[in-house]
UniProtKB/TrEMBL annotation:
Superkingdom of the organism of origin: Eukaryota
TM stretches of this protein: none
Coiled coil: none
SMART domains: FBG
Name of the featured protein: Fibrinogen C-terminal domain-containing protein
Signal peptide: 1-15
Keywords: Disulfide bond, Signal
InterPro entries noted in UniProt: Fibrinogen-like_C (IPR036056), Fibrinogen_a/b/g_C_1 (IPR014716), Fibrinogen_a/b/g_C_dom (IPR002181), Fibrinogen_C-term_domain (IPR050373)
Domain called Fibrinogen C-terminal: residue spans: 15-238
Entry's Gene Ontology BP terms: elastic fiber assembly
């Protein structure tokens, strides 16, 4: 698979770029309209992050925050890794909870989840409102709580609303509501596990076979089928505030 790697137009001022896009929508609006890997700066000029920008799907401008496609990256990770991010934007990766939260301080976002099976069928689910700990003074102490609503069915069904209001959980920071098990251990990866989950994009890559801790989207294939590919992507719908 060939991956197009592109950089947004950067004009250096000293050691820092003049153009510091917050997300892929900023990059698209500056004229870079090819899907690929770009740099964004949600934490400021000294903290760039590489992300995959989907500039083709439904008008483009999507910042991919999570992607699975081939099982090359282990998603059974500690809290700190889910906070900071891991993997490579050209392949499988998780952007990082803190980075996602920083983006949301400036813009309101929608979410799209694209899923694909090994037989070539591809469907999606879309949510018009997507945020994590929007009112918290400290998002991490609040557990990066998921807020999602406004479901639109693209054939996948709604498997994420079950996690609305859930804190993010990993095997070393159990924040689910299930007193009997650690859902992140049971499901094979960190996520907004409630008790436990209907969506498991960060589970064990199981190549289509039955596995209750595989990569699944319950309302489409239930937990009896581990998906070939899944990606979660966010796109701004409005500014939180104006700097003008």
């Amino acid at each position: 698979m060939k991956v197009l790697i592109l950089l947004a137009v950067l004009i250096p001022v000293g050691a820092y770029p003049l153009f510091q896009p917050l997300d892929c929508a900023d990059i698209y609006n500056q004229g870079s309209k090819a899907s690929g890997v770009y740099q964004i700066y949600p934490g400021g000029a000294t903290y760039p992050f590489y992300v995959y920008c989907d500039m083709d799907t439904e008008g483009g401008k999507w910042t991919v925050l999570q992607r699975r496609m081939d099982g090359t990256v282990n998603f059974f990770r500690r809290w700190e890794q889910y906070k900071r991010g891991f993997g490579q934007a050209s392949g499988e990766y998780w952007l990082g909870l803190e980075t996602i939260h920083l983006m949301m301080l400036k813009k309101n976002y929608e979410l799209r989840v694209d899923v694909e099976d090994f037989e070539g069928a591809a469907v999606f689910a879309k949510y018009s409102s997507f945020s994590i700990s929007p009112m918290a003074i400290n998002a991490e102490l609040d557990g990066y709580t998921l807020h999602v609503s406004g479901f639109t069915d693209g054939g996948a069904g709604d498997s994420l609303s079950y996690s609305n209001g859930a804190k993010f959980s990993t095997f070393d920071r159990d924040q689910d509501t299930n007193d009997s098990v650690n859902c992140a251990v049971n499901q094979g990866g960190g996520f907004w596990h409630y008790s436990c989950t209907n969506a498991n994009p960060n589970g064990i890559y199981a190549w289509g076979r039955y596995d209750s801790n595989g990569v699944f989207w319950w309302q489409w294939k239930s937990a009896t089928y581990s998906l070939k590919a899944i990606s979660m992507k966010m796109r701004p719908v409005s500014l939180v505030y104006s700097e003008e």
